[in-house]
Each structure stands twice: as C-alpha cells, then as structure tokens.
Amino acid sequence: MAFRVMYVAAALTLLAKESKSEKPDCGQPQLSTRIVGGDEAPPGSWPWQVSLHRPSQYCGGSLINHQWVLTAAHCVPGANPAGLTAYLGRHSQRRSNPNEVNRTVAEVITHPHYKGETNENDIALLKLSSPVTFTAYIAPVCLAASGSTFYDGVDCWVTGWGNIAFGEVLPPPQNLQEVKVPIVGNRRCQCDYGQYKISEDMVCAGLQEGGKDACQLDSGGPLVSKQENHWIQAGLVSFGEGCAQPNFPGVYTRVSQYQTWIKSQITGDQPGFITFTSAGTNSDLSVSCPGVPPVQVKTAENLQTQTKSVVCGRAKLNSVAPAGRWPWMASLQKNGEHVCGGTLVSVDYVMSDADCFSGPPVASDWTVVLGRLQQNGSNPFKVTSITLSNQTGSNVAVLRLSAAPVLNDYIQPICLDDGGSFPVGTTCWAAGWSSGRGGEEQVLQEVQTSLQSCENPSSRSSICTGAFTVEMADGGGPLMCQQNASWYQVAILPRVSTLSGGTFQKLGHFRDFLARTAGLFSAPTFGDGSRTNGTGSTPSPATVATTSSSETRGGRPAQFCLCLCFLLLFL
C-alpha cells in the first residue's frame, strides 16, 4: 500500500485523573471559541499550533514549552536544522498575522529508533533559536503522560494547513483548519491496515466511512484532547492510506509512550504532562479479525484452567539477544521516570524494595513497565495499590496492577523462594537498569555471581554472594538462582547509592507478608517432595548457605513458589 506520511489530530474528551496534585500551566487557550463540525479554526483557538517552513510551509508541530516544539521525525530527515523556520501564533499562510512570531530552529533531535519504512517512533523535538513569550495566541499544549488511555470512539480534534483532499491544496487565504474525528482502537485499526503493523506506540483516529482526516502538509501536527480546562496532546500526525479514505483512519504517534524520552532530552523548563483515562469500557477489546485474535477475558469458567496452565520462573533459554532473558523484570516508574526495578510475582502483582518509596506512596503516581529490554517506548501498567511490609530491618513493597498482563515469552512471573536451601557455589544472577550503564537507552543489565557462606553465622535470614556492584536504579530488582529449569528469586536488591558487598535479606523473611498480600502458590515438587539443586541432588546441610533450623521442616527445607494466586482476582 502507498501510505501518506502525515495526518489527523484532535481533542479527546476524556474523564481523567491527573498524576500530580497540581496541574501544569499548559493547554489553556485564552480564546476558546470552537466551530463544531466546521473547517476554519478561529484565530487563537489552537495557540500551540506551529507552522514549519523550509522555505514554505510543509509540516506542523506543537509548542510544548518556551523553546521546544514537538513534531514528526519524518518531517526532519537527517535531523538537519538548516533553513528550518518555525512560525508561532500564525493563522493564515497568505495574509498578514499580527500575532505571529518566528524562530529559526537551532537543534533537531529525532528519536534514536525511528524507522521510516515502518513509521515506528515517528517523533522529534525541535529547539528554537530563542525562547518565545506566551500570549493569547502563543501557548504550550499539555502532553499525555505515560499510563494515559484512549478508548475507541473518543472524540478528537486535528489541526493544520494541509491539503483538503489527496493532492488538493488548501485554497487561499490558507487559514488554519480543524476537524473532529473519533479515536479508533488499535485492534480495529490493525484490522483495517491488515499486514501493516499498528504498534502500541501508535494511536488511530478517523471515521469508518471516511471524509474527515488530516492530509499532506499536516504531518507532525497535534492530536489533542480536552480534560477539564486543559487540552492534552494524545498524538502527532504520522501516516495513513490516502486521505480520509473509508476504513483507513489516520495513524498518529502516541505521545504518552515517549514521556521519559522527551523529558530526558529537555533540560530546565519541562513540558506539562497530564495523565487521563477514558470513561467507560474499551469496546476495542471485543474486536477480532484474521491476524488479530480475540482478547482472552478472565471469567469464572476459565479461571481454573488458566491457573493450571501458568508456570512461574520459566525464562526463554538460549536467546541470541538479552530480550526475554529475564521476563519477570519490571521497571517501576514515577511520573514516567524510572526509579527502581521489580519482579512480576503473581498474575497482577509486582514486588520491589520498600525503600523505593519515600513517605506514604501514592499509587496513581506510579506505573510499571513489563516485557521490555529498554525502559522507554513501552506500554505501562497503572498501579492501583502499594503495600509495604513493616518489619525490622529491610522491607519489601508489593504493587497491584490495574490489569493482569498477557503472559508471553517476554512477560512471565518468577518463583519466590521462601527460605529454601541453595548450596554454596550455586551460580545466581542479578539484573537492573543502573544509570550510566547500557547507554542512553538504559538497556537492562545483568551480572553473574555465586552463593557464599556468610561471615556472620548468626545471620539466619541473610544470604551471601560474591561481591558485585548494586546502584540506586538497580534497587528492587531480583537476586535469582535456577533449580530444575525454574528460576527462583532468593532476595531483593536494596535501593542504595552504591553497594559492593554481597549480603542480602532472604526473601523467606517476608513469607507471611507476601502470602497475605500477593497469595501463596505452591510449586510442583520434585522426587521426594523437595526442590533439588542443579545436579538433581538435595543439598547437604553442611553445604547450604546459612539456613537456620527455624526454616526447615521434617529435615528438608521449607520451599514454596509464591506465584499467581488467582483467587485474589475475586477480591
């Protein structure tokens, strides 16, 4: 198919909750008149709209603070700012604009993983040569924060000076145009586009019967949604099939997927991000077609079958790349920024270190990213509750997700060891996203170590390893050891500035708390009922790593796999 490279955008009227107690100063035009169903936008009604010229108008963009503009990566090939000018406060392309200012572009930053052939990560930032002053005609738009949802049918607005039909230029005086279009769910959009991939980093909008859309020269322009008194950018015009064709909605870059990347590129005056949630239920979940299988809905009838089919601690082996090597790894993010690691331990629970949370944690501030080698560009899960243990010494945190993730090769729960015996010398691993390792994209890092005897024999609740460095961003991640093809988490990495030692609190210390909070799921037993080591033999008491008598039962270690307690789904 021949895909056009630019498209629709507009306002999503959503019932939403902000992730911060104070709303950012953005997305509030002083001139708020709308022409519902019309074509020409009133001057000043979209004060963040930017017109990009080289030398004539060829793309759109949106002002996100005093000196930065958001646009599509395909609008700035080669990331070359030469000859590029941004016009702000402009209404007409052919007549005078008394409220207009212009700036040359000093710097272009395209997303490092932009792929022109698939339109993935079609997003770029433009730094203006100097800041602009906000007026009634020049003001920033708010950006959708990570965790935002856009359900099928939500009304949207798109603006720009693009063609009014495929190959038909906007006639003079070429005033700014606006059009109202509804969100099209990604499943339905994927059915429309067939083999062309509509990823989680994209959002679609348009009418099934066609007739309303963005078109050539609209590329990079904003798709916005109004929440209370704020307009929030949900997407930016990326591509589509023709213009306003039936059953081919416009496809936009989903802005909420790039909060971390945007904030990492801008220093100082940060854009305003607001999280919002669509009202009602998502009808797109019921859509299926060839290549888009039905969503498996959890019901009382299939619950027991699902429970039996899920096995924890099984990672994809012999992977060429690290992706999928540790499928239980989670990135805990506060307002879109990575704070700590964690592990998926149950159908909708994630475990981490309690020190990741300063003061009483507010669940709505947090999201969890699963199944990703890198932290950015992924679809986060909202958090509905955070429960901290309250014991002497180290403590753990359990986060409940708003929805259960779909398990696959890249998302699996890990088994939890509740005080079992792994022999001294057992090879174990730790993983995390330390700052400064893995480059700018913060790729998941791993380190191999081995269990050792603890120097303090009275440390019955401790487990010791060879020395390796733990940094702040590694905190909450797992120390994990393998037994009979299953991986068990034996401890949680502490959140400290730097730790070069190898003494950790055994996970079994928190057995009662974890059983109450996330449920207890017994792993299959091996042979005589105990879990064996990698050689198939039961560890001798003389060679186990600091196992206390209170942690044994009937001469064998008490071992459980704390995973997937589906009964909690009914709570």
From TrEMBL:
It comes from the Eukaryota. Residues 526-554 are annotated as: Disordered. Residues 35-267, 310-519 form the Peptidase S1 domain. Residues 535-550 have a biased composition (Low complexity). Gene3D superfamilies: Trypsin-like serine proteases (2.40.10.10). It holds the Pfam family Trypsin. GO terms for molecular function: serine-type endopeptidase activity. PROSITE patterns: TRYPSIN_DOM, TRYPSIN_HIS. Keywords: Disulfide bond, Glycoprotein, Hydrolase, Protease, Serine protease, Signal. This is Peptidase S1 domain-containing protein. One of its GO terms (biological process) is proteolysis. Residues 1-21 form the signal peptide.
